UniProtKB/TrEMBL annotation:
Keyword Glycosyltransferase among record annotations: no
Pfam families: Aminotran_3 (PF00202)
Family statement drawn from the similarity comment of this UniProt entry: Belongs to the class-III pyridoxal-phosphate-dependent aminotransferase family.
Keywords: Aminotransferase, Pyridoxal phosphate, Transferase
Keyword hit for DNA-binding: no
PROSITE patterns: AA_TRANSFER_CLASS_3 (PS00600)
Listed name of the protein: Aminotransferase
Cofactor: pyridoxal 5'-phosphate
Gene3D superfamilies: Aspartate Aminotransferase, domain 1, Type I PLP-dependent aspartate aminotransferase-like (Major domain)
């Protein structure tokens, strides 16, 4: 069956602008309409089965069609399908989830703010830190450090933190003060003859130079994915995070771990920051938080940030930030059940064990003439394909795969 003759596909082509899709190619090729999912598989309208190797967008931790998540959503839908959390309102699932997240994440994170997406969460991080610094009278401390090829979302602030050309060019971004440091990917950004340790030292020196040039009193935060994911699955070089953490402490810069993909076991450890052994002041969580069955993200932050924000909001009467769906009861109820399943089934331990097999298996491709590098941690991996191993030249075939994934930006 030609999928273009399918009426759903025709309506889709006629009506929808797809995210991260070449619109003109879509008019010709149409969508792949997925009809249902089960475990690690999804099925199209004709019943054809696909292995969902990316787990959606790195998000379906417990697999598709988990009945317990369906029941959790249904129960909450029947009891209280919606309520907000503005102006002192609250409901049990969001309270219980905040308690759980504070318990699960490493100290010193004690406070939670909810959004519906990773992008909104990173916008919240920017605004929270700006607000805190205004409250503390540090009105110049507003700039962020991020990395080339980092991915933090696509809204105006989070898209500015993202360090990928397609997210900036033609969107007039960055729109907030952000400096993108060298991407910490040794294979691509290491200099000829440089060791991995020298590479780390060079990146740390670069970061310190930028801080000193701009003035530490102007730098509010450093944001990074512990293991860079959407920009190309790039684990950091040895010692990188310890060095960045030391710089943040030295110059009073908040360290933000964007764990939207890394969090809840993707790397075979609970969180990316735990995996690489550093302590963030702010952690951003989403995706595997609900297995993406419901849109939800959470910003975890320290008591110190909370106290400054709370003092100021008491002074002016309110903290003027929040979303209609912040802490949505159905989303937070699903998250609680999802986290219970992750714990009961030891999915983080499983990711560690299966991740070892995955990484070892993929390492076998390293000798292939078109594989430049095999890399990853736990259940996230990348093979970098090159046309020439010696020069590391990439293929530039200009091909546009129909099933373009987010990693192919
Ligand atoms: N941060 C990271 C690390 C991400 O990978 C993503 C999405 N892939 C985001 C933020 C943005 O999340 P969302 O798409 O939910 O806005």
């Amino acid at each position: 069956m030609n999928h273009l003759s399918n009426s759903l596909a025709a309506v889709d082509i006629a009506t929808t602008l797809h995210p991260y899709t070449d619109a003109r190619a879509h008019e010709v090729n149409g969508p792949l309409v997925i009809a249902r999912g089960e475990g690690v598989h999804v099925y199209d309208q004709a019943g054809k089965e696909y292995i969902e190797g990316l787990a959606g967008l790195w998000s379906v931790a417990v697999g598709f069609s988990e009945p317990r998540l369906v029941q959790a959503a249904r129960r909450q839908m029947e009891q209280l399908p919606y309520y907000h959390s503005f102006a002192h309102k609250a409901h049990e699932p969001s309270i219980r989830l905040a308690e759980k997240l504070v318990e699960m994440t490493p100290a010193p994170l004690t406070r939670v703010f909810y959004t519906s997406s990773g992008s909104e969460a990173n916008d919240t991080v920017v605004k929270l830190i700006w607000y805190m610094n205004n409250a503390l009278g540090r009105t110049k401390k507003k700039k962020f450090l991020a990395r080339i090829k980092g991915y933090h979302g696509i809204t105006v602030a989070s898209g500015s933190l993202t360090g990928l050309p397609n997210n900036h060019r033609d969107f007039d971004l960055p729109a907030i003060p952000v400096h993108h440091l060298t991407c910490p990917h040794f294979y691509r950004f290491g200099a000829e003859g440089e060791s991995e340790n020298d590479f780390t030292a060079r990146l740390l020196a670069e970061a310190e130079d930028v801080i000193l040039r701009e003035g530490p009193e102007t730098i509010a935060g450093f944001i990074g994915e512990p293991l860079m994911a959407a920009g190309g699955v790039m684990p950091p070089p040895a010692g990188y995070w310890q060095g960045i953490e030391a710089l943040c402490r030295k110059y009073d810069i908040l360290l933000i771990a964007d764990e939207v993909i890394n969090g809840f076991g993707r790397l075979g450890s609970s969180f990316g920051a735990v995996h690489y052994g550093f302590t963030p002041d702010v952690m951003v969580l989403s995706k595997q938080l609900t297995s993406s069955y419901m849109p939800l993200a959470a910003v975890l932050f320290t008591e110190e940030i909370y106290q400054a924000v709370a003092d100021n909001s008491a002074r002016i009467g309110t903290f003027g930030h929040g979303f209609t769906a912040s802490g949505h009861p159905v989303a937070t109820a699903v998250a609680l059940e999802n986290l219970a399943i992750i714990e009961e089934r030891d999915l983080i331990g499983n990711a560690h064990r299966m991740g070892k097999l995955l990484q070892e298996g993929l390492a076998g491709f390293a000798d292939h003439p078109f594989v430049g590098e095999v890399r990853g941690a736990g259940l996230i991996a990348g093979l970098e394909l090159v046309a020439d191993k010696q020069s590391r030249r990439t293929f530039s075939c200009g091909c546009r795969p129909h099933l373009q994934g987010i990693s192919e930006r």
